[in-house]
Every structure is written in structure tokens, then in C-alpha cells.
Amino acid sequence: MSTTLADPPPPIDNTWAVPEIAIPATIAAAVAVYFVVKAVRDSVRTSDDFLVAGRRIGPVQNAVALASAPLMYSTLFIITGHIALNGYDAAMLLTAFTTSMVLGVLLFASPVRNLGGYTLGDIFAMRAEERQARKAAAVVTLLIYGMFTIISLAAIAFIFNRWFGLDNVAGLGLSVLVVGLVTVFYAYTAGMAGVTRLLVFKAILTLTVVLVLTLLVLAEFNLNVFDILDKAEQNRKDVPAGYDLLGPGREFGEGQHRLVHLSKLFCVAVGVAAIPFLFLRNFATTSGRDARRSAGWASMIVVGVYLCMAIVGFASVAVLGSERIGVIKAHRDISLPKLVDELGGPVMIGVLAPIALLTIVGVYAALLINAVTCVTKDLNVVRGRKPDPAGELRDIRRNTLRIGIASVLVGVAMLPVRTHIFIPTSIDLAGTAVLPAVVYALFWRRFNTAGLKWIVYGGTALLMFLVVFSNGVSGPDDAILAGANFKFIDIEPGLITIPAGFLLGYFGSLSSKERDDKAFAEMQVRALTGGRAPAAARTGADGDDRPRTPSEAR
Hints:
Radius of gyration: 23 Å
Shape: globular
Largest sheet: 2 strands, antiparallel
Low-confidence stretches: 535-549
Helix content: 55-70%
Mean pLDDT: 89
Strand content: under 5%
Number of helices: 19
């Protein structure tokens, strides 16, 4: 009998959790974060202060915050067990995340900041009809927000199970509710400035732990990385195909199976760079030059962290052996706590528990600010609302509470449902509907409203169709409808829909007579220099004159 209900966290012999240390450490971390956020509360006096920190975030602070965002539970804790089990192939996944950071430096950082907007809608509205552009931006931004939020809150339940030893369903739901509401409170207190401080605080703690853990495993092997790799190969978990841990094949396999996993690498490399809440924080920096510098520094930080996590992953199987690591997909996140328990003891386990939670809290806080900005700026234009500055700030704060509390309640309600497919789907959606639209808006003279609509609505529809018939919905045991099998594709849908998004934008733009070379020139000037070309009216396909820039439209 098929069911959409998720199985509870797979039973494990949790011998490492020390709630008597983890709980006080988590409370202390929550109080510390509150004072970190509160320190910038008085600087929030206008809507700009709340949404983009008054565009006062310097390059160093922004670099650390940017690096903090992709340091998630999946890329730190789960990836360790993934590498311990699948070796070289799992480490390749980290290269895909690194590639996405480089793409962000080259494409998004400086041009996006130079435009001087707030949302994805501001970028689209410079090349398309205002209301249509903002509708499209709101659709894709809020879809990604919803999926990322649900899966992030579900990860909190796993953290409480793994690091606090909590296995009661009601207790897990209550824990997610409390952590989610506390995160909403942080975002409400000081907006983007507070969230930036939160991300910096999270990054400092995370980098410290990663460094200490790396030094511990290196000390265990006399600072010899080659000894770690040799021991990892000796202790590897045997697989039916017989692949070595240090060579390709354990995860990628051969033939079509290899294409399936290569498609995942492609979608991560291309899609993660286009996730709105990651690249739109460049609007908060002091200048385009600082945005580019901070993105470059963030990439170097992330590369260093992922290199350390690869060492820790191989060390996990080297120290623990093949019988003590997580040997199935659902248990991959138990390898790291077991390694920490082995090398650092219960105190280090207890200290790591709040840091695991911070990896989720930081991401959800950034997501929430992005959603609030979209609702306040884009949807207000769509509805024809033009609140005064004081009224807009009140709207922003109300929206933070409304969206945040509603999202947390939905996330708690969705805990029993299999939602793991939301992460790859949201990444694919960013690559399908955001990346082509931003690239065309910045660099193609012929791009117009029709092209934007074809990308966003056509690309999203195609992606959702393929997702329904993918192995995330039916077929495998962990699919949403595990008892059914009506899939016809095994590859990541984004491998098809991301190129399709570019084609849709191209043919959609050519299908319309709308063309505005002056708007493209204005976009080029602003994206490349941060300045503005002389103001000029633009004429849309329907013949109406409207201001050239989104800020002028407001």
C-alpha cells in the first residue's frame, strides 16, 4: 500500500547523544545569537535598513555571510557520511557546490549589486513590463522559498534525533516549532543586518569546529593525509560492483546510472548559483566592487571548508571502520557524530549540537528575509500599493511575522510527509527559471516580457511535469508514492529543463515584437558601472510609456 507519509528517522543505536550537555549549550548559543542580533537593532529605522541593511554591509562581513549560507547540514554533516561510504564520487559533489560559487562570482555579484534593487523583480522589471516582471519574480521566489523552508524545518527534526537523542514524534514537532519561531524572532528583530550578523556568528563557530575536527583527524594519523586515504581504502565498505573508495564508480556506477549522478552534479553546479536568497544578498553590500570581492573571498572560504570536510569524511571510515559508519542512505549523517565521539568525547558532541542547529537557523533566516522582501516590494507593485516609508516598514515587520509563523506551522504539519524531493526540485527550479532570465536580462538585447514569461511559467511547468514522473515521486522505496511506479526518467529533471529554459527565453522573445534597445543600454550601464544612463521613457509592446528603472517606477 503506497503512502506519502515519511518513515520516522530510521532506528539507530544512538550511543553518542548527550542531551545534558547539548541542551544547555543550545540555550547558551540561542542567547548569544539574540545579543548579536540585538546589537544592530537600533540601526533599523527605514525599510532599506530592514531589507538590505541600508546597503552598508562591507566586503569582509558579506564574504563571511555569503560563505556561511551554503554551509548547511547537508553539505557538512551528511556529506561526511556520504564520503565515508562512497568516497571519490561523493567528494565530487562538493566540487559541484564549489563550481556554483565561482559562477556566482562571475555572473551575479557585481552586476546585480550595481543595479541597486531589492528583489529578483527589480532585475526583471528593467527589461520587461513592470507588473508582469514582478508577478513572475514572485512566483519563482516564493516557490523556492516554500520548498527550501519545508525541507530545512524537516532537517531540524533529524538534528534533534541525532544530536539530542529525541525520538518522540510530538517532541520532535515541538522542537521544530520552537526553533522555527525563534528564527522568525531573530529576523524580525533586526532584518538583513541582524541576519547577516547571525550568518557571520554561525560561520565563525562552524569554521572553528571544522578546523578543530580536521586537526584532530590529522593528529590521529601523524598529519599524514596519505595515511588517512590508505586506511580509508582498507576499511571501505564493500559494494557488489567492487569499486574502490578512492576511485570513481561506487556512486556513479556505469552506463545510464552514471548519467543519473552526473546530472545531479550539473544541476547543483548551475542551479545553486541562481537560488535567489543566496545571490540577492549582494544588494546589501556597499558597492558592486565590494560585492565581487566578497563573493570571491567567500568562494575561497567554502573551498577550504569543503576540502576539510573531504578529509574528515575519509577519516571517518579510516577511524571507525566499515561497520560503524552509516552504511545506508538514511544513516549517512551518523558517521560524523560517531567520529566526533571517538576523537573528542561527549563534551565535543554536546558543543556540536547547537552548531548543527545553527546551520539550519542561518539558512531559514536568510530565506525569510528574501521572501519578505519579495512580498513587500514585488507584490505591492502588482497590487498597485504605494505605502509611505513609515507604513512600508510596518508592513515589512508584519509580513515577517505572518510569513514566518505561517511557514513554521506548515513546516511542522509537513514533518510526517516525504519531502526530500524539495531540495533538488528547488535547485532545478532556480536553474530553470532564474538563471536564464537573469542572463538574458543582463546580456541579451532582444530579451523582453514574452521571453521572461516563457522562461518562468513554461520552464516551471515543464519542470513540475518531469518531477511528477521522476524517481522522487514514484519507484524507489523512499519516493513520495513508494508503492507506485509511473516514472519514465531517472536523471535529474534539471538536466532537461535548464537548457530548455534558455531555449524558451530565446524563442519567447523572438515571438514578440516588443524590443527596447534603450532599456538594454540602461541595463548595461548600470550593471557594469553602477551609474545611470540619461533618463528616457521606454515604450512597451502595448505602447504605454513607463519609467526606465524599477526605483523610478516606485
